[in-house]
Design goal:
The protein has 65 residues and is mainly α. It has one helix and no strands.
Length: 65
């Protein structure tokens, strides 16, 4: 009986450890996704800025013509 109880306790402990490990992995994955999202947003902002500048220059060129 004691052996079975110890096995159950060890199994529960292992499950808790695995759950914590999964939570840590998920947290790291979320941080990575957020970092990538921020990088993508910055890249899009730079592209929009460049396109906006290009559009302004094109507009000026069109006005000059």
């Amino acid at each position: 009986v004691l052996a079975l109880a110890l096995l159950l306790v060890l199994a529960l402990a292992l499950l808790l450890v695995l759950a914590l490990a999964l939570l840590l992995v998920l947290a790291l994955a979320l941080l990575l996704v957020l970092a990538l999202a921020l990088l993508l947003v910055l890249a899009l902002a730079l592209l929009l800025a460049v396109v906006a500048r290009g559009g302004k220059h094109r507009g000026r060129c069109g006005q000059q013509k």
